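Bench notes, afternoon.
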Amino acid sequence: MMKKYIKPLLLIGITTTFFSCSDEFLETSPTETVSVEDVSTTGETYSGVLEGTLRGVYEMMFQTGTGGTTSHEDFGQKGYDIMSDILSGDMALAQNIYNRYSSLAQLVATNDFTFTKPNYMAWRYYYRVINASNLVIKSLGGNDAVITDANRTSMGQAKAIRAYAYFYLTQFYIPEYSASSKVLPIYTEANSGAAAQSTTEEVYQLMIKDLEDAIVLLDSYSRTDLYQVNKDVAKGLLAYVYAARGSSADNTRARELAEEVINGGAFPLTTKEKATGGFNNVNENPSWMWGVDITTDNGLDLISWWGQMDYFTFSYQSFGDLKQIDSGLFGSIKDEDVRKTQFGTNAASTSTYLSPINKFYDAKRIFRGQRNIDSDYIYMRIDEMYMLSAELSAREGLEGAARTRLKEVLAHRFDNPADYAYVDTLSGQDLLNEIYLQTRIEFWGEGKSFLALKRNKATLVRGANHIYLAGESIPYNDDRLVFEIPQSEIQNNPFIN
C-alpha cells in the first residue's frame, strides 16, 4: 500500500515561539508565520489554510526541534515516551557511549531546573502544542464558538490535542494528583501573555471538558489518516485523564470510556504475530488507534525515535547507546509468552542482549540499514483500552470483568490457555499487581509504563542492567521522577512561584 504522509508546512502559525512568559517573548504575528487573525481571516475564503494549520499541529508531534533545542533527544512525542520509560525504570540505559539521556537516567536533571533536557524541552514542547491548538480554536471562532458543520471536526481535534498536551504536563511536572496544588499555568487563548499557576483540579477540569466536547464534536467524523484524532482516540485520552485522577467515580468513568472503544469494534487486538512484527507500519497494524505514517519526505534521520531505539537504524542504538528492557522485568516474562522473544536473549551479544530487536525494527532488518526514516510512529493501540479496563475494573471490585479483559490480551500472547489460567485464581491486590505487571510487559517502549507507575502508586526497582542506580528502589512520587519548571519560565513569568 502506498504510504501517505503529513507534508511539511510553511504556513505554520503554530511555530510561534511559546514560552508562556512575558509579552516581550511572544510575537503575536512574526513575519515567518501566520497569526491568529491572519488564519481566521484567510480561512473565511480558503478553508485549506485552517486544515493546513491543524495538520501543522500534528506535525509538531514528530518533528525535530519542537522542544526548542537542537538536542538529539528533541523529536516530539516519541522522545518524551523514551524519557517516561526511563523514568519508570522499565527501560534501562545499559550503555551510554554518546551521553544521550544520561542525566535523566541518573535522575540528576529532574532535580535541577537549569537542565534544558528534559525540563525546558518538555515544557516548551507541550506548551507550543497548546498554543498551536489555541490558534486553531481561535481561528474557528474561539472556545465558545457556535458549532457548525464547517468547524465541527477541526474544533474537536484541536480541543483533544490541547487536552493531550495538558495531560502530559500533569504527568511530568506534578508528582501526583492533589486538587489544590498549583503548578501549571492554563492558557486557552493563542499567544497569551504570562499567566499564574492554576490548581491541578482546574487543569483536570479543562482537560475533561475539552475531551468531552471533542467526543461529541467528532461523533460522526471519519478520518482519512491515522494521525488525526477521532472519537475513539479522544475517548482513550479521556480514559487516561480520569484514571490518573483516580477517584472511584473517575475509575468508573474511565472504564466506561475504555469499554466503549473496545465494544465499538473498530480495532482488533494486536495478534501474536504482530507482537513481533516490528510496530513499524500504520497500514499493517489494525490494532493501532493513533499513529503517523512517516515517509522520507518528513526528513527524519538519526534524530528520531527509531534512531534511539532500533538496532537496524543507523543511529544511537546501533552504535552503542543501548536501551534495554529492565532485567528484572524481563525475568518476570514467562518463557511461553511471545513477548519474551521481542528481546535479544543472547547474553554474549552486548549490542542486542535485552534490546527490543524483535519488537521495534525497520522492516528491512539490515544492520544500520535505515538512515532516512520511513518506519512509522505509534501513539495508541486498542490493547491499552483492554488493559485500562482490566485495571479499573479490578480497582472497583469488578474482578470477573478484570480477569476477562486481561485474559483476552494474554490469549494473543500464549499458545496454550493453561499458561495464563492462573489469572482466574487472582483477586484483590494480587490481581491488580498482575494487571500492572502485564501492562508493563505489553507496552514496553511505548511510553505507557510511567503513566501506569503513577496510577498504581508503585515503587520501581531498577534491575542489574541499568548503568545508573542499579538495584535502587524508587517510589512513584519521588521528587527525582518529577520534571522541574524550567529556569527560563521562572525568570520570564513573574507569576510563577
